[in-house]
Design a protein that fits this description.
The chain has 4 helices and 3 strands. Helix content is 41%, strand content 14%. It is α+β, with helices and mostly antiparallel strands and 137 residues long. Strands 1-2-3 form a 3-stranded antiparallel sheet, with helices on one face. This is Alternative ribosome rescue aminoacyl-tRNA hydrolase ArfB.
Amino acid sequence: MADLRARDFESELQFQASRSGGAGGQNVNKVATKVELRFHVQQSAVLTEEEKALVQEKLANRINNDGFLQVVCQTERTQLRNKETCLDRFYELLRQALTRQKKRTATRPSRASVRKRLEGKKKQADKKSNRSYRGDL
């Protein structure tokens, strides 16, 4: 998988700006700084079919019913910085979705780690048993 930024996603990305919600004073009320990035996964000419399937599977919770992958940014004070943040998040999401996970090889705990764990449990059990009231024995 080559560097994603080298591919030309720019033509397939749609940006929409709107006013941010929440606190922020006059700037929030009059300036459209919130940026929403939309990317249609299935109609992409940049991604291969295999990559599209991976993105659909791994980012299913971020893809709406129309098939758009959505990234929303409203943390910065300017529209340009929010747009840059959206692009960074978009490329990071794609990178994570397209990176294959290494298969885990099963291993057994070492004898020393098992002994250490059991000693700790025994110590804790002794501590708790010493707290109990035994009455007249």
